[in-house]
Here is the input.
Amino acid sequence: MSTETATVKHKMFLAGNWVSREKEMEVRDPQDNRLIGTVPAASEQDVLHAIHEAQDGQKIAAAMPVHERIAILHRAADWIAQRQEQYARMIAREGSKTIREARKEARRCVETLRISAEEARRINGETISFDQMPGSENRTGYFYRFPIGIIAAITPFNDPLNLVAHKVGPAIAAGNAIIVKPAPTTPLSALLLAEAFDHAGLPPKILSVVTGYTSDMGDALITHPAIRMVSFTGGLATGQMIMQKAGLKKISMELGSNSPVIVLKDADLPHAIESTVSGAFWAAGQNCLGVQRIYVEEERYAEFVKGFVSRTNQYIVGDKQAEETDMGPMITEAEATRVESWVQEAVEKGAILLTGGNRNGAYYEPTVLVNVPEDCRLAREEIFGPVVTIYSVPDLDAAIKEANNVAFGLQAGIFTKNIDHAFAAVKELDVGGVMINDSTDYRIDAMPFGGVKGSGIGREGVKFAIQEMTEPKVVCFTVAK
Here is the structure.
């Protein structure tokens, strides 16, 4: 593979082999719609071939000693660490992230793979006291965890390298085979990850990265009986469709959110403003953890809004590759147009636009609204764009009630110096994670990550993904008296 500026015909990684196809898919830079390269448009036959090969691959992976899994994961991490700028440039070219944001993602990918290597040695079971039941005094045993087999991973565009690593790293650490279908808009970063594993000596058939359109591939990747788990990160509607079609297999899903932040009157306001502005507009707001709704205690509401708008207006929007740029374009002009329509709907229903609200191609300005009515999409659904709504609330109880009054529950944030208020929020917020004195988009790659309600099923984070990707097997010995 190459990240040169010239258009490149890339190959996909099919069961350990780099292959081309006559039918191709274009990959374009959303900033200017410039053609970056092409990738094969995989067919249903390609998917079925990947599944067939992975049936051998899962046996190879399961039989691989743990020390070999560890070594391969470390070599892949080292390969990327030595080429971080190359990987970051690709992330920034094919997606929405600025080069500074992309560098952070490349660093996190290295960390994800290294954590995977460490967790591979800690896939442990436990002894079982069978003699706790009368009549079982002469029995002894334990359980251990074994790999589930073949995992299908469907990944999004907004973290095109590290979110793929969050599926591939734990799968390999646990001794599984995995087939990755990256987002059609950002397949090149996933192929670069496959390249790292190829150079690291991963045996063939364990990993495939199939590129192309879902319409060409059919449903085999989620419906085939040999697939024992589907790990999906994306939108709620697609997640619901996968659930309906997948059949009897494990499902792990992270489906986004419209994350709330609570700012109480005793908060460190400059810190809260800086954190929430960053959390709202990172990756042009295309972040499942992105700050969308902010509830400010009424005594500090006016001050917070003034400071938030002022900091938002300082954001530099422009060329993704420029070091000074804070925010780039959205992933497509169609997505920017959708965001524009949601904001227009809110304004038409009475919302007040304080800043932003303008679109130029795929670029949409960082946007702040207040007085947003409940009967518009922006108040209820995930905008997945650089738009924030701010509300005044009388107290913490009201803020928690409003924060919970949506169909999502991924992460929430609260800014306060009162430990009792912090713990009340921890207890009452209906989410998968509560960040105290931090933005909702704070995450490290070792923590359990996932949500409740419409935000998904199961947990990622390397150790916790490995639990999802393995099953316990009980062993019981009857010992002669």
